[in-house]
Amino acid sequence: MELSIVTTLYRSAPYVAEFCRRVGDAAGAITDRYEIVLVNDGSPDDSLAVALKAFQADPRIRVIDLARNFGQHKAIMTGLAHTSGRLVFVLDADLEEPPELLRDFHAEMRRTGADVVYGVQPRRKGMLWERVSGSLFYRLFNWAAAETIPPNVLCARLMTRPYVTALLSHREREVFLQGLWVATGFTQVAVVASKQSKGTTSYTLAQKMAILVNAVTSFSNRPLVYVFYLGAVILALSIIAVVDLIVRWLFFGTMLSGWPSLMVSVWLLGGLTIFSIGIIGIYLAKVFTEVKQRPYTVVRRIYSHDPEQIHELHASQGAGEPLLYE
In this predicted structure, what is the pLDDT of residue 266? Predict the structure, then answer.
């Protein structure tokens, strides 16, 4: 297989048919040996039905139906594990990223010899709040993480088989794909690409904060290091304050009076203590998740025109057992 195309489906029913048509046209301009892998990530709409209709009409299409919604990043990793192409192209199915980017990425890969060609937005899409919150996300993540990720990076990327193999070698259950893309290494080249906006974002501020916390704690241990330095700074300030009080009492006969200053100090130190314990607790929860070694997705069924692919997966998992993919 020369080229594999992977996308995930979640509330994607209105776009699946056009996506398959357009990405098929783009792939056909490069090679006639390509496949399209559609991963249904527990979509609550009729995305699976639409995908199966496309599957029946095109022998190049394969559908991976997950047992429930596991999240886009885990679904993408599962889709990548089911590819066989020498090159692998990943993008969203909602057509915000035009499938025709495949041709541009392929030309850039041939020109530069890079292992990965990925898209970045020249300017973040959406309304003011979406742009500001998105920019803040990348700034905070890059401040807290050891590996920096490019701002406004798109899902769309074309990858070589050695890079995909290395990417799939990561075994963590808490998947933050943008971070893994960078951590995997190899030669990666960015291409400026536009992304259309289909309206305001559905993510609330609380959801964005949860994504940021999960991304940072799944990918970096720096917050734990920052907790240590925070404690060191508070200890230094406390020593300075004690020395100041002793000097005032010995040489000036005065002491700071009043309950307000005492209560503010107690609240400040209590809040910092709880905050620090909370950070440590989040990391302990991550460790708890990782040591259980659960598969990060469960495949309900694979729809393929090649029965050998399904047979091989059944043989590797055991007859009658759920289709698991780690």
Answer: 74
> Per-residue pLDDT tens for 55-74?
999 999 999 999 999 888 88
Query: What integer pLDDT is reported at residue 227 of this predicted model?
Result: 77
User: How far apart are the C-alpha atoms of 61 and 55, rounded to whole Å?
Assistant: 5
The Cβ of residue 69 has, within 10 Å, a number of other Cβ atoms equal to: 14
- Percent of the chain whose predicted confidence (pLDDT) is above 70: 72
Beta strands in the chain (DSSP E): 3-9, 34-40, 61-66, 87-90, 116-120, 153-160, 188-192, 297-303, 323-325
In angstroms, rounded to a whole number, what is the distance separating the alpha carbons of residues 105 and 29?
13
Which residues fall within 8 angstroms of residue 273, CB to CB, at 6 or more apart?
A: none
Q: How far is 76 from 152, CA to CA, in rounded Å?
A: 19
The CATH classification number of 3-203+294-325 equals: 3.90.550.10
Digit-coded pLDDT (tens) for 43-56: 999 999 999 999 99
For the chain, the domains span: 3-203+294-325, 222-291
What is d(CA 228, CA 239) in angstroms, rounded to the nearest whole number? 17
Average of per-residue pLDDT across 230-252: 74
Q: Mean pLDDT throughout 222-244?
A: 74
Contact 41, 69 (CB under 8 A): yes
pTM, two decimals, is 0.73
The letter for the amino acid at 246 is I
Can you tell me the distance from the alpha carbon of 301 to that of 211, in angstroms, rounded to the nearest whole number? Answer: 29
How far apart, in whole angstroms, are the C-alpha atoms of residue 90 and residue 33?
17
- Strand, helix or coil at 291? helix
**Which one, of 151, 153, 119, lies nearest residue 135 by Cα?**
151
